[in-house]
Fold this sequence. Notes:
This protein is of the alpha+beta class.
Amino acid sequence: MDSLISVSYLALFFIISLGLVAGKARFRGFSLDISAVIFIAMLLGHFGFRLPSEYQYLGLLLFIFTIGIQSGPGFFRSFKHYGKHLFIIAGIIITSGAIITWVISSVMDIDKALAVGLFNGAMTSTPGLAAAVEVSKSPLASIGYGIAYPFGVIGVVLFVALVPKILRINFKKSEEDFNRSVKQSYPEIIPANFKVENPNIDGKTLVELKFRTVTNCVISRVKHGDITTTPSRETQLHYDDVIRALGTAEDLENVKLLVGPQTDEELQLDKGHDVQWVLVTSKQVINKPLQKLNLGANYDATVVRIRRSGIELRPMHYTMLRFGDRLMVATSRESMPHVVKLLGNDDKRLSETDFLPITLGIVIGILIGMIEIPIFGLFKFSLGVTGGVLAAALILSGIGKTGPIIWSMSSNANQLFRELGLLMFLATVGCEAGGHIEETFVIYGAGVIAAGAAITILPLVIAMLVGKYLLKMNFLTLMGVITGGMTSTPGLAAINTQSDSGIAQVAYAAVYPLALVLMIIFSNILFRVPLF
């Protein structure tokens, strides 16, 4: 048996298998899930199991790169689309957690590697642990993570479950307040039909009217006489024509002023015209603005709507197309196949895996991580492997395309590589940490458990007080931001049991990428800042 276990790849998959089985066990709705692997690895490591460090670094690279590739578009979009309050709260959680960790480790004279591990375990951040292990080169980081992680998970769940009851929060009112604010900030794009009764526009083309610029709306159909067609830039509007426009309720009022009154008359397309959703998968159109495609001039086609990652965008001439966008296109049946061919519309490409962006992206990230920057002549700072690979993945996925290379992965491939990398990393660092856990408890005692609990709870309380009473945020949004800032999916699940509105999920998704990046940055800073 010993000779079998000495075969490293057998030991690796043996530990992962045991960890996955243990992770499925549930106690009152709580389970360790994939994180159980590090605890099984620590247990076996205590009894002498070890794995080659190459597994750790290979797993680390795959895990961090896939996190960055997945988070990149959302990370940069979140800064543009979501209020600054969300990022203030996320920043408060992680900054206060880092400060509390620094104070506690200074008072208790805790080793810095152990302290950074406690910080990441308390914040339930595996990417942060990866950064901590890399920067500290010490198994104590993994031990600290393992000590603080259980309460990090349970503490957030208890917090979001109990605080609303203590404060007597009315979730129905929070939902109504949120929906009211969303309608004001992000009004829904809706269709409406109008009859042309303004004599001043009779016989003028859409280009001459500067229709899109003046109204901020898009026309998808025009009925002239008994024939309904999809319009082009040169389509003329005549008295008694009926048009269908798409825009916000406020923008549609502009159409009414320009064209004429709204009508309930139905517009059925002529057999020679078509409207359909087309998927953007062609490399030649990715990262190009709609204006450069010349769809109107070449195909008499109009892009009516754009859906990107579940968000509906207003099609403007400067809108840049991204891989995976879905465009609602209106044009003639004769031109539609040409538009479809231009845009790609290949569902299979969404599930294909191109290895070149993965391998090349990791190489770029490693090189970025090796760059050293002098800080005021005191020390040299580098992002390291973790920070470099994450930075490269975020930037490249934000760019979307460079020449023939599309910096993206299918969701299935991303999840596979991410979980494989995480499992390899947890198994390796867990084994190494297990060999030192006994001596850690001998030196520090149960105080490190209390330290981890404090690092979890205090930032939650600070963030809740600032968000509710100082920034006066919607409570459901605040709870979503708090769980996102703590990168706590179980915490989000606890909120969803109290409200099924999805409001907390939106805030969670908005700040989650930022939280991942901040945890990695602060893990590096914490290890480098001297204790007082």
